[in-house]
Amino acid sequence: MSEQDNIAFFDELTGKVLACLYGAFPVPTPLLAKDFVDEPLAYSEHVMSEVASDQAEFFIATCEWLRRAGYIDADERDPYNLIVREAVLTAKGLELLKVRPQNLSDEPTLGEQLATATRDGATDAAKKTVSEVLGMGARFMMHGISSL
Predict the structure, then answer these.
(1) What percent of the chain has a predicted confidence (pLDDT) above 70?
(2) I need a surface site. Which of 9, 10, 94, 101 has the fewest CB within 10 A?
């Protein structure tokens, strides 16, 4: 996978994960690789059995990055790379998804935009919203919530 493909796939998975957790908030939710990637399993000649695919491992790595960056909380990494247990948005993740673009009160929140885009299969719109959320998250980390 090229660097550009990695970033695009990361943005797509991030959008799906954040939309799922926004819709389920505050209930901790299991995130199953099979619900987020096309091919969660691949046959391994080495162990002569199905194991997590590269896509599933990328999904788990994406969730782990979101956890370490403070957007989500979840149990420790699954050794089989197929599930993220007890995932929930953190306060930071929720606050960012509740932001309205340019603070326009009649516009949907970023979380609502993300949920709509992922539900409708609008991956470009979801990726754009993910970029906005992660950019705001970076500004938040540097300057505090008042910078949003």
Answers:
(1) 83
(2) 101
Cα Rg of the chain, angstroms: 16
User: What is the torsional sign of CA 120, 108, 101, 66?
Assistant: negative
Position 4 scores a pLDDT of 61
Place of tokens 């999904």: 59
For the record, the structure tokens of 20 come out as: 């799922």
Cα dihedral: 6, 100, 115, 62 (round 10): 30
CA distances from 34 to 24, 52, 68, 104, 124 (A): 18, 10, 22, 36, 22
Find residue 50's DSSP bridge partners: 43
Residue 22's closest CA among 115, 109, 106?
115
Amino acid, single-letter form, for residue 58: F
> Which amino acid is it at 110?
L
Query: Could you tell me how far CA 93 lies from the centroid of its own chain?
Result: 10
The three-class DSSP label of residue 43 is strand
| φ, ψ (nearest 5 deg) of residue 4 | -65, -40
142 — pLDDT class (breaks 50, 70, 90):
low
